Amino acid sequence: MSILEIENLSFSYGNPRGKLSENVLEGIDIRVAEGESVGLIGENGAGKSTFLKLLTGLLTLKDGVIRVSGFAMNKENLKAIRAEIGYVFQDSDSQLFMSTVYEDVAFAPRNYGKSEEEVREAALSALRQVHMEDKVDRQIYRLSGGEKKLAAIATVLSVGAKLMLLDEPSVALDPKNRRNLIRILNELPGAKIIASHDLDFVYDTCQRVILLSGGRIAADGETEKILTDRELLEQHGLELPLSFSRGRKL
Amino acid sequence: MSRISDAISELHKLDMEADKPGWLQGIHPLPKLFVTVLFLVITVSFGKYELSGLLKLGIYLIVLFVLGDISVKLLLKRMKVVLALVCLMGIVNPFFDRREMLLLGGFAVTGGMLSAATLMLKGVYAVSASYLLIVTTSVEEICYALRRLHVPKLIVTVLMLVYRYIIVLLKETERMTEAYALRAPGQRGLDYKAWGTFAGQLLLRSMDRAQTVYDSMMMRGYDGEFYLRCKRAAGRGDYLYAAVWSAVLLFLRAGSAG
Description:
The complex is a heterodimer of chains A (250) and B (258).
Chain A: E1 2-11, E2 25-33, E3 37-41, H1 48-56, E4 63-68, E5 71-72, H2 78-84, E6 85-88, H3 92-95, H4 101-111, H5 116-129, H6 145-157, E7 163-167, H7 175-187, E8 191-195, H8 199-205, E9 208-213, E10 216-222, H9 223-227, H10 230-235
Parallel strand pairs in A: 3-8, 3-9, 6-7, 7-8
Antiparallel strand pairs in A: 1-2, 1-4, 4-5, 9-10
Helix pairs in contact in A: 4-5, 4-6, 5-6, 6-7
Chain B: H1 3-19, H2 23-26, H3 29-45, H4 51-67, H5 72-78, H6 80-89, H7 93-96, E1 100-104, E2 107-110, H8 111-136, H9 139-148, H10 153-182, H11 192-219, H12 236-257
Antiparallel strand pairs in B: 1-2
Helix pairs in contact in B: 1-10, 3-8, 3-9, 3-12, 4-8, 4-12, 6-8, 9-10
């Protein structure tokens, strides 16, 4: 069953003077199954962040259809859709706005009207999934970069998001934290869309890759097939992952 | 270490002190906030010449500092700028109000001197009482108590987010000043020509951050209310704290009015 269905999605930012502007996304058709991990790659300006923001309703859909867990994207369904989708921002400091880890992870379930017992259970369960249960009362500012990223992921798990959107999750992580994040993401059962320039990271976490170029889907298929296609990648402003450069797979 | 780093470090230390196990830290935030507000109201209610009555009110602060094991030295260090400003507030009074009010061992004490002393003491009391609350209560607990006292949710939300993000913005400022200093060797501080650009950049980055934080909150079901909780419910000890201090403060006020 599909957790996400997108049909003929097009989007432009428009122009303050009311003139038509070029579409940032054009004719996007995608289906993501439950539990599937999809990498979203493309050069700067390809439309990755715009695409993710449309899925969350942060940008208003103008053309096309988006359905999340069967809910069509519109104003009435926005709250229900946001309970199904978790967005992990590139900068964890923008996502972690409470003082402690627990308060941040409990924020979403409280907003959805859960009792305090349910909130506690959801928060602790989310923290266990990212192996942060020992930091439940830690102040956010005392977390390392890697820990903040995991806490940010826990904040979206606590409400039971079935589809997680991650925007450049490996940015500013040291190798150890990056490896840890890969391990944790691979353990999480829900569907994921990971937008990243770190193609090695995408290779290690996603079974399927969508290549966006100029707002259109240039390729959509198995990770191994797309990320080893030098010509395809270079044609769209990318390069082979380091793991595959010089014929070496790490 | 730069002054910004020092400021950030002090804010972190305040957080840690509020989390420390202690008698005063253990009191429920609602009675603590209530008593603090009552103290502030009573302090302000004293007339400009009622110095003797105001002095007696200091017993509240003395008892809490001693029993709560709160360092006065740290208070003076952290609040030195505020306390200095507070003391400066009444400094011109003696020049305008020269009416002789009483004689102290041959020395004529004027109305201006009395009102200056009263004003300074009120300021010191207000700063000290607020400091006591901040150093023994976390921001979430203070905000929780404010909402229980029906302070508008917008004010509480802004207070919470300002506290959370002041450190982020201070760090951003520190990065910008470091970047500036590395490209302006031999120059002390910011050239006045850069002030406007600097402030503008900081404002733009703050607005950008604010938008992203708001998006993050909306993504997690935010509907205008922060559903804050206290770690434990108020017990008999907490109500007793509020009752005893309320009675003492009101008694001291009433005694001074007579």
